[in-house]
Amino acid sequence: MQPGQQRLVVVSNRLPAAIKRDGDGWTVKAGAGGLVTALAPVLKNRGGVWIGWAGNSDPEMDVDSLLEDFSSSAGYDLYTVPLTKKEVDGYYFGFSNEIIWPLFHDLQTRCRFHPMYWRMFLDVNFKFAELVARKTTSDDYIWIQDYHLMHQAFFLKSMGVKRNLGFFLHIPFPTPDIFMKLPWRWKVIQALTEFDLVGFQTMQDRKNFTECLRRLMPETRVVGRGAVVSVDMGNRQFRLGAFPISIDFNQFSELAEQPEVVEESFKIKEALRHRKIILGVDRLDYTKGIPERIRSIQTLLRRYPELIGRINFVQIAVPSREEVDEYKELRIEIEQLVGRVNGEFSFPGWVPVHYHYKSFPPEELVAYYSAADIALVTPLRDGMNLVAKEYCACNVNEDGVLVLSEFAGAAAQLQKDAYLVNPYDMEGIAKALNRAFHWDKEERRGHMANLRDNIRKNNIYWWVDSFLNAGIAKSLGDFPEVDTLQFERG
């Protein structure tokens, strides 16, 4: 790295690569998902750094050696924060997923406010901050990702380490009435105020945060209008912004037009005898509203019996946190509901609900998106929900319908052209699906064309640009690729 060169340093709970057991040895596999898609090109060959946990808690493993080859091919440096099983249990499964995740998704009855979780959360955040301090310089821009690492700025400043720090929260931020139930509410809010820029998915999330801030720190003043505002705390200032995350639109759209994907999409339609396909795609999680969705399909078939035999509901549930009891119970509940609905309505040659509990390769998932006439995206609460955007990007014929929960962050951006529903209202969802089934072709096309234009324009690179512009008045283009040949010649 050249002196004075500004690098982008991404810090997240997980690295963009995971170490998996392969027979008797270990192998490094590239991660997937929107964050990796968005940030890997920004870091590649630009002197970028990614800091995180490698997903393994074996203290004997030489993780750094395993990641060296991956770093070389990825074009940026990876540094791992080693975590013990006890730390993972307390910080990740405990504080992050049994307190913050349900609380911030308005499901506070699922929270377990164990003080040990809080102590472990602080210990692990301190561990991350130590590595960030060692592996970065004051010229770097440090971009912290998500709720697992809310104390990074607090600990770096307590060490006397000066860095330009941005934070982005990928999940919703709750209203004051819900947030105030957190026993460590003041400390969490105070830690977030130590960042130079705090980003949220929607303006509503930002508003919720400022209301919590005013309740806990009444002297706070919020100045400005628009997507990014300033917060004056008397002794210091920082900025707040709304930056809706997105997808690589062209990647999905082009994949949907690949001949093998088009063929696979046609096979799916053939297998279901060209009935109208309603599609749900989710990670298996209690925030996604899958049981409510299946009950909505049951309500649809009871209220509109003329649709019996004319539709198929396909629910793809990607396995998640399989070792957690709540998720095991959720899986059983969903399977029992599917059985009940199919038992009530099936006849020879037709089963209403097709349930897949597995991960699909990208090409096959895109084929399902392309085949679906209606996407039913009804989380009980979601920071954004990229499935809604992925479906639209893959709908290259522009004849699909997006039925979307009003409690998904994506609703704020897509509300004009999606059919918004209350995910708790089974009759309302049934009514929306019946209307979508009968919607005029031109009306469908007009709305889907608008949705696709919106997502194409506000894609994942726009998201990165808008955050960096607010954080350091720079964009992707301001992080030039390093001339690797020059270093080789030198």
Automatic annotation (TrEMBL):
* Broad class of enzyme this protein falls into: transferase
Q: What is an example of a GO molecular function annotated in this UniProt entry? A: alpha,alpha-trehalose-phosphate synthase (UDP-forming) activity
Keywords in alphabetical order, please.
Glycosyltransferase, Transferase
Q: What is the protein name stated in its UniProt record?
A: Trehalose-phosphate synthase
Where does it sit, as one GO cellular component term?
cytosol
Gene assigned in the entry: otsA
Query: Its GO biological process terms?
Result: trehalose biosynthetic process
Tell me its family.
Belongs to the glycosyltransferase 20 family.
State the source organism's domain of life. Bacteria
Give its E.C. classification number. Answer: 2.4.1.-
